Amino acid sequence: MNDASRSENASPQGPYSRALLLLLATIAGVSVANIYYNQPLLDRLRETFPLAASWVGTVPAATQLGYAAGMFLLAPLGDRFNRKTLILLQTGGLALALTAAAGAPSLVVLAAASLAIGVLSTIAQQAVPFAAELAPPAQRGHAVGTVMSGLLLGILLARTAAGFIAQYFGWRTVFGASVGALAILAFVVIARLPNSRPTSTLPYGKLLGSMWHLAIELRGLRDASITGAALFAAFSAFWSVLTLLLAGAPFHLGPQAAALFGVVGAAGALAAPIAGRSSDKRGPHAVITLSIGLVALAFVIFALSSASIAGLVLGVVVLDVGVQAAQISNQSRIYALKPEARSRVNTVFMVCYFIGGATGSAVGAYAWRAFGWLGVCAAGVLFACLAAARHLSAPAAKAGASH
Question: How many distinct structural domains can be found in the chain?
């Protein structure tokens, strides 16, 4: 029996319920938060490692590159093995990597631990396709949106939690606290998460190789991946330098202030289920078009707000709503392209997505050093334009087509 027929004959492996979606959302949020804890800590890391202060940007970049590597090497296993087992194994490995980061004696060790944290935090990318698998087709967008709201809250509130903890207890405590959160999560997963049924029998090497064929075969996957990568690059360019902007004149604010922007941005995560429902009802193309416009608008607001907290707050809300709505719509459409290969399709999308994020962090750091805040804003607008060019070249009627 081939993979497609296995998928068609498979039935959902557990009760589709709000409680299960909330658990999957929690798994996604708690795990993915680990790749963002270091962003509001950059100023503290410069103080801890003064001889390597100019290289602190390698820490978030290494984490995001690690996430991209973990997506490629680990996330496709969700099509081959029980996702519950994979989640528990990765949780244990992630706790070890976080412990190494908490005790890092040098920036080099911290960057290496951050790379491992990125690889293992891909637990989140088992939760999202699991929700798409369990949901009825007519509710898939809403299910993905609900779990993604947890993931996005994890991304945004991670900065808030890390900033507050670093302010009062030091940056090393941030990683230690995450180990405790993962331990609690592991017990809940054991007790409450159902098992999944694999949809592929391909050996590991062929499983990885099949992703190239999926990318070649599916035009909709290529469009979503490139558009998503460009938008996340814009997102990361902003967040990777926000702490540095707030630390200088006229603000002179520490990581706690930067963390508060995570709370503001988290309000935008409420748009995720709404975007999912809109994608279910109207299709994703229009939602993504609007989202790209919001991202570009956000950077115009940022450019006019280099000395205004209120302007930065408004820009953060617009940016986060735009990026989140686009990601929900992109993922909703790619999960329908190849039901028997959802983990691999998701992997292609998310590897591109986080390569975009790492690129955005690097470009943002360079633009900040070379051109200041306006350079960062110009980079964000450029990334939004790249997303628009790809997205608008694929008409709505062809968004899911092959070739």
Answer: 1
